[in-house]
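re: ur question from yesterday

yeah so i grabbed the chain u mentioned. its 425 aa long if i counted rite. heres the sequnce exactly as i have it in my notes:
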Amino acid sequence: MYLSAIDRPGSDATPTAGRSRLRGLTIVGGNVFALGTVSLLTDISAEMVTAILPVYLVFGLSMSPLAYGMIDGIYTGATALLRLVGGYVADRVRTPKAVAGIGYAMSALAKLGLLTVGRSAGAIGLVIAADRAGKGLRTAPRDALITLSAPPRALGRAFGVHRAMDGIGAFLGPIVALAVLAATGQAIDAVLVTSFCIAALGVLVLVLFVRDRHGERPPTAAVSPRQAMQLLRAAPVRRLLIAACLLGFAVIGDGFVYLLLQRREEVPISSFPLLAVGTSLAYLLLAIPIGALADRIGRVPVVLGGYTALVVVYLLLFGPLHGWPLLALVLLLYGFFYAATDGVLMALAGPVLPEHLRTTGIALIQTGQALAYLASSVLFGLAWQLWGPLTASRCAAAVTVLAVVATAFLLINRSSTPTDTEVTA
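ran it thru and got these structure tokens back, copy pasting raw so excuse formatting
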């Protein structure tokens, strides 16, 4: 159920009006904070490398918008099927922590791989693919651990806490990279080695402090591929998957947004990574309060509000504002978009998925969204190349409006939450 006892406004109301904010946060549990710490460290490592990637590919390697769109889409979408693998394996062996750990370790090792590939675009693409493969493998088990580590009424806050800590890492990553470059005389190798060390520390935190959660399924209840496929027979799961695909198709990607800002405001190349810092700062400040708001007023309205903010971002890229007001407003709204959609969409998924297939179901939704994003990024790059950035951005805004309307139709006031009995062997 989407606007049901789980998602209905007021369903998470506390019995004591004066309950402190700290107590409201501690309900999410220590496991969520441990997972948040792992994501914080991993994001510092990842953003050290990726914050300057759009500039490097477009300006350094002179890639066309279409070529960049293909690489950017592949960056997120090409390893999307591994999310299904990670989700299914985690449900099958009932050890989501181990599957997530393998994914985190793969991404850490990929940082060392970048040391050996030089300026070859193809080799860089292969290493990035390995890094994203690790991300694809770990994402669903990690999010399933969050849903199993917090009470249903606090899932919005749990994902908000996790995404806020993730946002802190994304905020610090470009800053750490710039500091390392300044301290080492612009030595890229030093950035990569530092990035690997930080990622390895994240893996260590996962091993030492994150606990597996298995829910209430008995060990004898094996998960089969047939059961996983039957998830789509449940109407709420099917509707959420369709909505996730529509919303994924509405996103053109960070790189394009920042490149359009850079072109319009002539942001110095040396300052380009700071655009990502601005978005991350807004994200980390908003993630927890927006997650709590989603628990109070409903998660679907918050998600729709986030994508409405994305429409405004696309329109502002060629609107009347200029200078720092434009930069500040776009980065604030872009951070709000991520805070209102990333974790909240996964909080929507948790209650409508049967416990013994929760990781697989989350992976299915994430895979559909990632593949839709791959198509969106390629098509936006093609539209930019054929019609110019202005027309391409307006088309993106129109597509996002349609996706928001369709998602509202799919998710608001829809009932029937699937249970374990609906997905049978």
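noticed a couple things. The chain has one domain: 29-213+222-422. also Residues 323-352 form the longest helix (30 residues).
anyway ttyl
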